[in-house]
Amino acid sequence: MRNFISVEDVQDINGLVRKALDFKADPLKNKQAGAGKRIGLIFLNPSMRTRLSTQVAAANLGMEAIVFNVGQDGWTLEFEEEAIMSGNTVEHVKDAAPILGNYFDILAIRTFPSLQNKADDYSELYIKQFIKYAGIPVLSLESATLHPLQSLTDILTIQEHFKEKRRPKIVLTWAPHVKALPQCVGNSFSQWVNAWGEADFVITHPEDYELDKQFTQGASITHDQDYALRDADFVYVKNWSTYNDYGRIYCNDPAWMLTNEKLLKTNHAKVMHCLPVRRNVELSDEILDGANSIVTQQASNRVWAAQAVLSELLKNTK
Length: 318
Ligand code: CP
Prior knowledge:
GO molecular function: amino acid binding; ornithine carbamoyltransferase activity
Structural class: alpha/beta
Binding site for carbamoyl phosphate: 47-50, 75, 110, 147-150, 274-275, 302
Pathway: Amino-acid biosynthesis; L-arginine biosynthesis
Helix content: 25-40%
Bound molecules: phosphoric acid mono(formamide)ester
Subunit structure: Homotrimer.
CATH topology of the largest domain: Rossmann fold
Strand content: 5-15%
Enzyme class: transferase
CATH architecture of the largest domain: 3-Layer(aba) Sandwich
Number of strands: 11
């Protein structure tokens, strides 16, 4: 694995999940794999789970992790080629990334979308510029359109909780929120479940909240949440802003928030969310504090997914 920015960087999803579960069973089994190596964790945006789970994963592999919050502490970066830098940007990624490539063996980047310009966000310019200029393996800690470490964790968590000899029914449901959020988690979860191909996958959202077809193709899509929830084994809850008329909130209908009453339609579904979550806006207390919620186990599994990916990327370091 040269980089990890989408499911397309993975040849064998089940193999990577098995590797992550092996690390869960024995976290220090490869504690020398990263000895003498360093990973730079570069944050243009905030994080708790992604940052800490990747640091723990690196430590389990004997690697040093150094965190740099560019958004708070660094020079404002320019990403456009041939930019005339007379505005607010101070340093070009073309100058910064090769230096980071010399300091580190793996470079990990978190860079959210602007939600202002769809073409720019969906070109993934920022993370692609780091790949172009760093010269070392690049790991996405969530980019403008995708969150692959989260999605690998999600597939792993579903596999851990589903032991029946049939395909699980997985529902991705939109939920209300007070802010316009990226489409990354919904896109990425859809991309991974479709690529995995071992589930019946339904996406439900209000009208005009369609995600990009390049990620959802293969899923059934409905605006009827009650219909979607029938017999579901897993319900993945997430808000996203509009994709077509980009980055807007059209609907904040609290009727879309998952409740215990809605859960009765499912097959005792496990409820997932990537976190952070706005309680009683995006998800109810009764669900989050109830027996069906697996959000804590899901977030805990972030370590093993990160450790599996880092151990693959380490094979491409010098
Ligand atoms: N799920 C997730 O990416 O959490 P953080 O934003 O806290 O890293």
